[in-house]
Amino acid sequence: MAFELPDNLHPDCGPIAWMLGTWRGNGHGDYPTIDSFQFGQELIFTHDGRPFFHYMARAWIIDENNEKVRDAAIETGFIRAVGEGRFEILLTHNTGIAEIWEGQADNGKFEWTTDAVARTETAKEYVAGKRLYGNVEGDLLYAFDMAAMGQALQPHLWARLKRA
User: Fold this and answer.
1) pLDDT tens across 107-147, in order?
2) Which UniProt keywords apply (predicted)?
3) Annotated binding-site members for heme b
């Protein structure tokens, strides 16, 4: 599917402009404290001309036939451009977690690392993360490494999404 840059794109958002729009696909999750699983996911990146994107993601657990079993994670937030390919990311999750990330983007690659994590009293322990998003053959590929539940930072989620 062809992608066109919006006329009102803020110049500082240029390094991640390829992410604008809606992406859908499937991925895999694994972690020492949970059973491995397959999931479907939708990511939405929007822009209104100011130096940030609004981000929304929702996921659902799927079975071996790619049929939805149940709803899973939801996260939303803002990806704020600060210039020279640098970004500040603020995310909140339905699971009671709020995060501040720092990101760097260049040549179709966007890496994030956590700067701060806050949790509600009922949220599971989660202390750090690292994300990598990449434009690979026109698809959005990503990987999420997590440190949680007493475990060191390690792979947790990975997916390949196509532009909707």
Assistant:
1) 999 999 999 999 999 999 999 999 999 999 999 999 999 99
2) Heme, Iron, Isomerase, Metal-binding
3) 33, 124, 156
